[in-house]
Amino acid sequence: GENVEQHPSTLSVQEGDSAVIKCTYSDSASNYFPWYKQELGKRPQLIIDIRSNVGEKKDQRIAVTLNKTAKHFSLHITETQPEDSAVYFCAASRGNTPLVFGKGTRLSVIA
Amino acid sequence: DGGITQSPKYLFRKEGQNVTLSCEQNLNHDAMYWYRQDPGQGLRLIYYSQIVNDFQKGDIAEGYSVSREKKESFPLTVTSAQKNPTAFYLCASSIRGRLAGNNEQFFGPGTRLTVL
After folding, report:
1. φ and ψ at residue B30, rounded to 5 degrees
2. What is the largest CA-CA distance in chain A?
3. B15-32: per-residue pLDDT in tens?
């Protein structure tokens, strides 16, 4: 089955700097790659997703890139703000199979 | 994500007791999921259901049971056979589309279970 590895497990950046979180997946048939943000004690919320027919997607300060050949995808957050501090999860799936999640990255934005 | 609810928010149970966690959605989603979240472990799939009266085991199904008698409801029972049940439990739902990749999941607010 699918296996998703996520790095780093923790990340600290200065406010205004960029943050990058990387994930690799094992199943070459996976075609859907969402990113979720989870604040302390809250539910995960989808912030951006990408499908396998697209290489990059942007939404204001966040972007996701996908390299199907290398089987990895990344989340980029620019101009980080304190409210970006949270745990971020990547995931992968194919067709209607359940999402397989990475173990998460705890991002701390230092003011 | 306001259309998926879980209750209770906090639950305490004595060792050896079964307990049932509620999950309800009014999003008309076909698929529903249960995840367990432990610190540093991410979200691990317990059970999922893609259609009423059918469900499949996830990666960590041992000690858990589910039912899917109605499209809106997917309760999870944590049995006494689950050796380490203290965790944060998240329910999710999604549209089960015919197109590949149509898998956006919406999460409920979670139930924090503590075994005393």
Report:
1. -80, -40
2. 41
3. 889 999 999 999 999 999
